[in-house]
Amino acid sequence: MNLAVDSPLWLWALPLALAPWFSAGMSASAYPWLALLPPDLPSLAVSVLLRVLAVGATAALVLGLAGLHQSGQTVERIGQGADIVLLLDRSNSMDNTFAGQAAQDGSEESKTAAARRLLADFTGQRQHDRIGLVEYSTSPLFVLPLTANKAAVQAAIAASRYPALAYTNVSKGLAMALDFFNAMETGGSRLILLISDGAAAIDKDSELLLRTAFKQRGVRLYWVFLRTAHSPGIFSQPADPRDDNAEAMPELYLHRFFQSLAIPYQAYEAENPGAMQQAIADINRLEHLPVHYFQQLPKKDLSAACYQWAAALLAVLLAAKLAEARL
Amino acid sequence: MPGSLIRDWRFWCLAVSWLLAVYVLTGPKIRQEQPVFRLIAIADITRSMNATDYQIHGKALSRLDFVKHSLQALAKKLPCQSELGLGVFTERRSTLLFEPIEVCSGYNEISAALEKLDWRMAWAADSRIAGGLLSTLEMLPKSNAGLLFMTDGHEAPPPNPRYKPDFSGVRNKHKGMIVGVGGLARVAIPKFNAKGQLEGVYGPDDVPHRSTFGESDLNPEAIQGYNARNAPFGNETVIGEEHLTQLHETYLQQLSVEAGLGYHRLTDVDALMQSLNTAGLAVTVRAESDQRWQPALAALLLLALVYCGLAFAAAF
Prior knowledge:
The complex is a heterodimer of chains A (327) and B (316). Chain A has 327 residues and is α/β, with parallel strands linked by helices. Helix content of chain A is 37%, strand content 21%. Chain A has a six-stranded mixed sheet, with helices on both faces. In chain A, helix 3 runs antiparallel to helix 4, helix 3 (111-125) packs parallel to helix 8 and helix 5 packs parallel to helix 6. Chain B is elongated and about 110 Å long. Chain B has helices at 2-7, 9-25, 63-77, 107-115, 129-139, 249-259, 269-278, 293-315; strands spanning 29-44, 52-56, 59-62, 83-90, 93-102, 146-151, 176-180, 187-188, 190-192, 198-201, 244-245, 262-265, 282-290.
């Protein structure tokens, strides 16, 4: 349980709560000789009680003013939920249509536009997931951390409507996406959803790093490959043995690399927005397995409770005041 | 003895205090006009932004780190319902990472994204600021978002005045301002190797000191060794101070006039906030604001008076 306040400056008023220890809050009555009174335990108890009530009322008002709240509460849940990192290709070609032409107004939508539309739908349906976003082109761009803030996720997906950037450097994008799972404490479903329309050869150094990172972090990988017409796909085999290398057929080699990782991996090749929708619906279905996860609760405001206590304590004090004997 | 009760000021204090506390429980709110902002901040992530000429608590900070720090502070300071979007600029254009996100509910996300801003995000080299500003203004739709273009104005390679971007198409179409980042003294630009490790600073031989694109803006007769085809910029080696960097304030001010934007030099977040207000970037919305603190404070003071009354009386 973590208690915190919104405006700590109010807490400077807390010493006011000490005042009742020094003053009874009653008008003094003249009495000839106090020592004449016998010590009386019930009176003492009432006197202490009234002071405690006054301390409580003052403190409750101050804490209410300061905006006391509880934060950092987590509850353990079992449900449908996953940590998903969307890894979105922002290379130039993504702004072309599936037919490989520049998207024009009114014509077929571009690959980015289709991806944006379908991802917005997909993330909208995934109510219990935390979603992060990485874009990559020549270098990776960190966009959003894993978050349950759906409005933020939609704002980030919407921003891909601006023109795409440059080249396709998939290994750096993957490395950044894997970093999202670096310091995570709990288990749960972790997956990377790679959406790209091309691939690039992965150099030996990065290959090794990616291999260990995928293994250690227990990440599942989905690759939705948006295939442009008349270009090599993930599953096409080289017609000429001289083309059987990563430079000539980066898509095939990236696919082989993913297969060799010994992690749960699924590739989809989509040649039109409909096929892409199919692939995403498939992932949506597969990822509805129950998982065990911790949910962070939003902060719980306690100022209303403070004010309720203050009102109740003040009511008792007022009643005591009404019962006060006057000489 | 009701008479004496009515004369007892402590009774009245307690009674009114209690009534106020009960009133607090009803959750008093007022609807009031509140200024909110919808902003898109575009941060320059070119190399000159790595120059360290800011300080916070005695610690040297790079321009980019200071931009991140300032925007995080701004996101915290903006009233709720304000929205902040983020983008980066390099080469001759910018890209948007996310559209404006509400700052109170999305502070963690905005702050994390700012934290991760890095010069290595750049998809290409070059720092063509005027061109970048123009393409940014053309790219962003005429939304109600104000633009904060945060840069030090250090163009690399240096601009050729003959080929200035024409802002007439976008002039006064957008609200916003150029935010000048950096100090006025020339400082060195840190140089990093391929692994991102610091490797000294850029020297005079590392950078071009003049534009060599197209034709020179000078009269050919004034150019040493001029040859229209082979050496339109002459044959002299130019060694300037382009490897050092400073805030090019007059240049940015001139750009801001051409683009119909405001200009602000980044110092601290309060000054930035003030500039945002005076630049008319605020939009007024009617918002409900919690007014419980007013009766609660009055109740607290009355209650305190009951117990500190004698002390007050003694003091006066």
